[in-house]
Amino acid sequence: DGGITQSPKYLFRKEGQNVTLSCEQNLNHDAMYWYRQDPGQGLRLIYYSQIVNDFQKGDIAEGYSVSREKKESFPLTVTSAQKNPTAFYLCASSIRGQGASYEQYFGPGTRLTVT
Amino acid sequence: QKEVEQNSGPLSVPEGAIASLNCTYSDRGSQSFFWYRQYSGKSPELIMSIYSNGDKEDGRFTAQLNKASQYVSLLIRDSQPSDSATYLCAVHSGGYNKLIFGAGTRLAVHP
User: Fold this and answer.
1) Where are the beta strands (DSSP E) in chain B?
2) Is the CB of residue B42 less than 8 Å away from at least one CB of chain A?
3) Does B23 touch chain A (CB under 8 A)?
4) Which listed residue, of A16, A81, A101, B15, carries a Cα 20 to 30 Å from B48's Cα?
């Protein structure tokens, strides 16, 4: 049963704490992405990785960090430096990171609330 | 930053009617275009991809692309209440090598 899993579904943290969101895929996709969605807004790209051990900043990388040590996994850490961390976080993957066929598939998301 | 624009809605249509969702984009070099459906509280689900000018049909869905006008649309025939969701348009920006998403159009299909 192929797909993308994200855990946990809901996450609550106190301000000033770092938190790591999990994303795993068994689709054998090369590329993985992290997006943030705020109420009534579109998706904004945080980080993406086209291949293992390589990743690039997206539009809103400040206050976030990632790693890509395995093809299947792309965890996102929300650090205390992120000013407004409360949001819906979405992980996605695509077969390749480049090329005309660029279909991205999303995991179920993690809703993070920081108080 | 290249942009993708959608009317936020809500677009309200009666059950059985055709819903027409529109999207314009600014990057003339874009080659790949996608429509995602997002139910409230859920993640986006890919429903259509289109790469060439013209129409592409899949069941009740038709995507239309006009690169000269930088315009892509999604038609939903025989709309059902279960189609009520937010529809996100996404465009692959070749120059930035990433997908750029519109803010989405909320569709409400009423019985």
Assistant:
1) 4-5, 11-14, 19-25, 32-38, 45-50, 54-58, 61-66, 71-76, 85-93, 98-101, 105-110
2) yes
3) no
4) B15
